[in-house]
């Protein structure tokens, strides 16, 4: 679709030339994310301020131009792909820390900032921001907000939605709104902050965020526990989650994932991190099981980092096993994990598709990796099983394009209708990320 010349002319008159790319070769660079989808927009716009975003949205509205906001394009379900062309909005130039306030345990940032930059700045003051996706070094806070991203620490500290106090955003109608604020509690009307988080750029463009910080723990303990089989490892996950202390990470790896890390023996492993002294005794006791092979405690910070580095690199290592990978991130209550993993094993055999499972077991969030190019029937059965187990389609990666067809399985028709109504209020002309989610 060629863009309306009057639309482009108006943008050229209003903004510096460096803020607008229209060359097809440039636009190609913004046509994909970490999914298998690709679509080329006709223009890429770099906002420098919230007002820039507002002006752009008003122009897009006037000329009916689709607008897809992009973080750093590391998301997996295709949310940042400009499916219907139009303009890709990048907030790469909005990457400042606006306020770092340890006394109120918060930090205000522009949405284009890279997540690791946030962590580094918070660390300097003795704090951390809880969301820690494996992609932290190269994803943006705006993208974390778009998908309600999480990571291993979510078992104790929650996902993005639990760690953002307030937002500045521009709706699809072109209105600048401020949601939430600088306090950890409020009781003033609907919680628009939590609504916008996870909305995948379909309701409003987030330009600034007030992030909730936690104090760095005095000490962290990390260890790996190797078990003969999956049932033992998952029984231990349930035992850990049943005692009073939460680990700060509780990750599960099946035997295929173990092989990728160089382990030839063992049927499953748990990677556990604890960040409070009191929890150590209870959690180590919960790890005992007759099928336990051994427990290896990381004795130094360096050894602990090495353990997590291996876990972070698992996703990329999978590509060594197969050029094709369908990566799902289903979530079920932890007590349903045994049934889920049994079903996944049965489906792997039924469809003759290798399935590698690992993930954030403390949340019941398993990254299910089907080593196949396409597997629609198998996927359908996986999602049906997950929903029957009172789980849902995605724990942290989002819906985007990939899981859109399965939304009616996960949500009531009436809930979808309410969501569509909300979309219509925020974005009456359906210009923001059209074709996603529903
Ligand atoms: C190696 C690797 C490891 C990963 N590990 C994890 C993990 O442990 N946990 C986890 O949760 N995820 C993980 N992810 C996926 C994760 O969702 C993304 O890495 C990250 O949250 C997306 O950030 P991004 O800046 O790349 O966003 P993009 O992919 O660019 O965008 C994500 C979505 O947010 C929307 N969006 C972007 N910016 C804004 C904005 N300013 N306002 C409104 N909407 C916006 C986009 O339209 C899109 O729908 C991993 C990905 C990779 C590649």
Strand-helix topology:
Elements: H1 5-14, E1 20-21, H2 24-28, E2 43-46, H3 50-63, E3 67-70, E4 87-90, E5 97-101, E6 106-110, H4 115-124, E7 127-128, H5 141-147, H6 154-157, E8 164-171, E9 176-180, H7 192-196, E10 204-212, E11 214-215, E12 221-227, H8 230-242, E13 249-254, H9 255-260, E14 268-274, H10 279-286, E15 292-297, H11 301-312, H12 314-321, E16 326-331, H13 337-351, E17 355-360, E18 365-370, H14 376-388, H15 407-410, H16 413-426
Parallel strand pairs: 2-4, 3-4
Antiparallel strand pairs: 1-2, 5-6, 6-10, 7-11, 8-9, 8-10, 12-14, 12-15, 13-14, 13-17, 16-18, 17-18
Helix pairs in contact: 13-14
The structure holds flavin-adenine dinucleotide (FAD).
Which features would summarize this protein structure in a list?
single chain; 438 residues; alpha+beta; 7-stranded antiparallel β-sheet
Walk me through what this model shows.
The chain has 438 residues and is of the alpha+beta class. 34% of the residues lie in helices and 21% in strands. It has 16 helices and 18 strands. The strands form 4 sheets. It has a 7-stranded antiparallel sheet, sandwiched between helices. Strand 8 and strand 9 (176-180) form a beta hairpin. The longest helix has 15 residues, at 337-351. It starts with a helix and ends in a 12-residue tail after the last helix. The mean pLDDT is 95. Bound molecules: flavin-adenine dinucleotide. Flavin-adenine dinucleotide (FAD) is lined by residues 33-34, 68-76, 79-80, 91, 111, 133-135, 139-140, 142-147, 149-151, 200-201, 205-206, 315, 396-397, 433. Flavin-adenine dinucleotide binds at residues 33-34, 68-76, 79-80, 91, 111, 133-135, 139-140, 142-147, 149-151, 200-201, 205-206, 315, 396-397, 433.
